[in-house]
C-alpha cells in the first residue's frame, strides 16, 4: 500500500512545512542549510541525487541551494497502456500543485483522458494520469520525456525568503499583508517577467481569483506619471523598467481576509507567473507533440 511504503520517508516530515500556513517560493532558505534532499522514487527504484534547475529568474547563489527544496518525482511510461502515456507524479501535498500540473499539461498540448488523484494519510500525493496529445494519440517517447522534464522543473516548492510576521508575507517581488486593512488582504506585485508581456494582467487576476480571492479595489501604475493620484501606488524609487506595479485589495472565500494556507497557495502561483518566459498555458513547441 502506498501509505505503508511512504512512512518514514523524509518527505513525510515535510508535511508540517506545507500545511502550517508558511509561504513557499523558488527562493533561498534563510537560516542554517538543511542536508540536501534526495529524489523520491517508487519502492522499486533506487534513490538518486537530483540537480534542480528552475525555469524562473532567481537571485545569485540561489541555484546552489535548490536541493533544500521540496519537489515531486515525475515518471512517464509508454509501455504500460496501448492507447495512453501513463504519467505519475509523487511528492509532498503542496498548495496549488494540481493547478500548476494542469497548466503545464495544457501548455505542452497534453490532454488527460483518465486520472486517479490520491493523498496519503502522511500528506503525500500520488497522481496517476493517462494522457494523450490534443489529437488523442499516445505521446512519442521523446515528447513524453520532454513532458517529464518540464513537469519536474515546475513542480518545485522552496520555502520563502521572508515571512515578516504571522500576517505579512514577502516572496521575491510579491508582498501579501493582512495588516493593511482589517477585513481585506493586500497583494502587491511589482514588476513583470517582461516589461511589456501581453496578457500578464489576465494571468495575474486569474491567479488571484483561482486562489479564492475577490478583488474589491486595486490600482495599476505603468510609469511615474500616473493620470490620477489614486493610481500612483508605486514608491517614488520604483524603477518602471521592471514592468508595471500592481496593488489589489482582496476578500478571501469567506468574505474576509485570506488565511495563511490560501496565501501560501496564492504566492506559489504568483511566483510561477513571474518566471522568465510565461506560465505554460501556451505550448513552448506544439509541433513537437502534434507532428
Provide a descriptive summary of the structure in words.
Residues 29-48 are annotated as: Disordered. This is ACT domain-containing protein. Residues 86-167 form the ACT domain. It comes from Pleodorina starrii. Helix content is 23%, strand content 24%. With 291 residues, it is α+β, with helices and mostly antiparallel strands. It folds into 2 domains: 2-157, ACT domain (Alpha-Beta Plaits, 2-Layer Sandwich); 162-273, Alpha-Beta Plaits. The protein has a 6-stranded antiparallel beta sheet, covered by helices on one side. It has a 4-stranded antiparallel beta sheet with strand order 2-3-5-4. A two-stranded antiparallel ribbon has the order 1-6. Strand 8 (168-171) and strand 9 form a beta hairpin. Helix 6 packs antiparallel against helix 7. The two termini are 39 Å apart.
Amino acid at each position: 500500500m502506498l501509505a505503508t511504503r511512504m512512512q518514514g520517508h523524509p518527505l513525510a516530515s515535510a508535511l508540517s512545512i506545507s500545511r502550517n500556513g508558511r509561504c513557499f517560493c523558488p527562493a533561498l532558505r534563510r537560516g542554517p542549510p538543511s542536508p540536501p534532499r534526495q529524489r523520491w522514487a517508487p519502492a522499486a527504484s533506487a534513490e538518486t541525487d537530483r540537480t534542480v534547475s528552475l525555469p524562473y529568474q532567481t537571485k545569485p547563489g540561489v541555484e546552489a541551494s535548490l536541493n533544500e527544496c521540496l519537489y515531486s518525482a515525475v515518471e512517464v511510461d509508454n509501455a504500460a497502456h496501448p492507447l495512453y502515456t501513463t504519467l505519475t507524479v509523487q511528492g509532498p501535498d503542496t498548495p496549488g500543485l494540481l493547478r500548476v500540473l494542469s497548466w503545464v499539461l495544457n501548455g505542452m498540448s497534453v490532454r488527460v483522458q483518465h486520472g486517479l488523484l490520491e493523498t496519503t494519510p502522511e500528506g503525500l500525493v500520488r497522481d496517476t494520469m493517462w494522457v494523450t496529445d490534443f489529437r488523442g494519440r499516445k505521446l512519442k517517447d521523446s515528447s513524453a520525456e520532454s513532458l517529464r522534464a518540464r513537469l519536474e522543473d515546475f513542480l518545485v516548492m522552496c520555502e520563502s525568503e521572508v515571512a515578516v510576521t504571522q500576517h505579512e508575507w514577502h516572496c521575491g517581488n510579491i508582498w501579501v499583508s493582512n495588516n493593511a486593512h482589517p477585513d481585506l488582504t493586500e497583494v502587491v506585485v511589482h514588476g513583470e517577467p517582461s516589461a511589456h508581456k501581453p496578457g500578464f494582467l489576465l494571468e495575474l487576476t486569474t491567479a488571484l481569483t483561482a486562489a479564492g480571492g475577490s478583488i474589491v479595489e486595486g490600482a495599476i501604475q505603468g510609469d511615474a506619471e500616473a493620470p490620477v493620484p489614486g493610481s500612483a501606488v508605486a514608491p517614488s524609487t520604483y524603477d518602471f523598467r521592471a514592468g508595471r506595479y500592481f496593488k489589489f485589495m482582496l476578500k478571501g472565500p469567506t468574505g474576509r481576509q485570506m488565511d495563511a494556507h490560501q496565501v501560501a497557495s496564492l504566492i506559489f502561483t504568483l511566483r510561477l507567473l513571474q518566471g522568465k518566459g510565461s506560465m505554460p498555458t501556451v505550448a513552448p513547441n506544439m509541433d513537437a507533440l502534434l507532428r
